[in-house]
Model the fold of this input.
Amino acid sequence: MNRDAGHHDIYTEVDQDNVAWLHFAKHGSSTNVLSASVLEDFYKELLDLAERAPRGLVILSDKSNGFIAGADVREFTRLENRDQALEAIQRGQEVFDRLAALPFPTVALIHGFCLGGGLELALACRYRVSRDDPSTRLGLPEVKLGIHPGFGGSARLTHLVGAVHAMDLMLSGRTVDGRTAARMGFVDHVVPERHLKTAARALILQPGSAHRASKLQTMSNHAWVRPGLARLFEHRVARKASRDHYPAPYALIELWQQHADQQRSMMHAEAESVAKLIVGPTAQNLIRVFLLQEQLKALGRGSDYKARHVHVVGAGLMGGDIAAWCALRGLRVTLQDQSAERIAPAIKRASQLFSRRLKRPRPIQEAMDRLAPDPKGVGIGTADVVIEAIFEDAEAKRSLYAMLEPRMRDDAILATNTSSIPLAELRTALRTPSRLVGLHFFNPVAKMQLVEIVRDENTDPDVVARALAFTGLIDRLPLPVSSTPGFLVNRILLPYLLEAVELESEGVPSPEIDRQALQFGMPLGPLELADTVGLDICLHVAEILGRHFAVAVPQRLRALVAQGRLGRKSGRGFYRYRKGEPVKTSLPKGYHSNPDILDRLLLRMLNETVACLRENVVGSADHLDAGMVYGTGFAPFRGGPLHYIETTGADVILQRLHELEQQFGERFRPDPGWESVSGFTNSGIRK
Ligand code: NAI
Done:
């Protein structure tokens, strides 16, 4: 058993006290995941151990980033049917049951990520010891993939800490640190790094009784209490996700309600339920989206370029938030604007962001120290990356670059956050025109994960590679796009927003328009979205794109802007705002909804999607879907717009477009790209 650590995903050492230390050390990967083959290796190791009968077993990870990050999600896409899924899940349960049944004390020694199947494994141990630091994260985030824990986790956790904490964790998918986990009751000891092994050893040499749920916690699983609690859980879930779109949390509540006092039957039900969910469309699409995210993340890891100092020019809405985000992520940041007064509001917002995210005073102070107001531009000369986020005005940007470039380091990246101006128009005043690249962040920066990396044939590929790496470094998802008007996300979003304005001006009540989009699965209705972005900004983008594409700007949008109704920021746009929230009036009595509404919104968006694919605005269909999900929140459970076209049938949508074109004119004229899309999608977008 004392094997060489280098060649095994799992190996065990036995020390002088006869304590066995089982190490997870996935070969050739920075992270431990529980693939089917790792599970089998683990099982064999457990059989060996059962025979050898050490004094106790400690399970730990050799990876610096954490314990075990969960199951191998890629394997989920290879499941062909429910029976195959059930078999795989039941095998997982058997392995963990074997662990739970070992006759000696077992300890999971947890640091960093301990998620999904990783936490389920830990829950099958008698004790859990966790490192005390904010980067140790425990959780059961399976709902985010359209399933719920299936390796016994739902049964074990509800039993161990009661339904209130257990269901909260599983239904939200949120993660907690070791201290919170200990407070909830599923971690026994939280200790600093240097005491981890001692704490684990002590639990084995002087084993106490394992943690038991308190009376109150046990009562939460009682048959009389369950129906009431189940209603409460459902109510909470329903506020965030509908049953039709996201069945997993509802299935979990149901199986808990039926089986919570019978751990065995709950495990059975758990496996059956996950097997059914995992081959369904929601889970398969969410898994697809997860893998798309991995694809974009990989782009950010393509080079070992490491930026340390970022200089941001323009401390407005975007520049201020970009600077704060970079400082939060550990970079040194200097922030420039025309005066110190203009920078002050950005620093104030940054301090709020740091408090929210970092919580403890010392890290907050350290982040504040990394962010320096720099009205004179002292930081220009030392920065690795200079990001320009001043007004959307080509002339202003060009003259700024003429001032910046001579002061910048030769190897520094010059990036613009422009949302609409092609690079070709901006680089004319540069001595080295090929160094300009677009880093197009979305508003709000701290929430929107996507950053479009804008480049054209004259952009230095090395600059692009560094821009990708920089985006990965600050934990955002980079999406390479061509420097064409509107790039990808705004170009596709705009026709959808304009159609909503069109509908509103025809007299369709705003709440009805937004309701239909929400029902489809969008995170925000188009009119509320337009109000949030600002109607003046929408108009500006519409006018710029209107010069390149045949986009007619609705008169209604111009009229609202002329009246000063700019949306949320002015207190009135399509909605009135009270305390920052839109007031949505109820529909007039006897109002009949029109089935065309959703089709009109959606098909303009899908038509533009096909145009972007045809014009190669992005590198692949997958990238396009990823961009729309992470840049606009396009209904994730539908797997992205192109995937939606594929599953609905391109011919069905094309037919509907023709009808709408007959009825409403050329803005619904099908893009020539539809002809190749049907062939394209037939060959499968999902790779
Ligand atoms: P903003 O108007 O909030 O901020 C612009 C800031 O730049 C102002 O504080 C201004 O004083 C400063 N500034 C102007 N000229 C300057 C100069 N020569 N030197 C130093 N500072 C200067 O504008 P916002 O909304 O932050 O937009 C900035 C850029 O980001 C624009 O290119 C815009 O298209 C783009 N963008 C905006 C988004 C949005 O939702 N507002 C989303 C994505 C990109």
Notes: The chain has three domains: 10-279, 309-484, 490-616+649-679. Confidence is low (pLDDT under 50) at residues 1-5, 679-687.
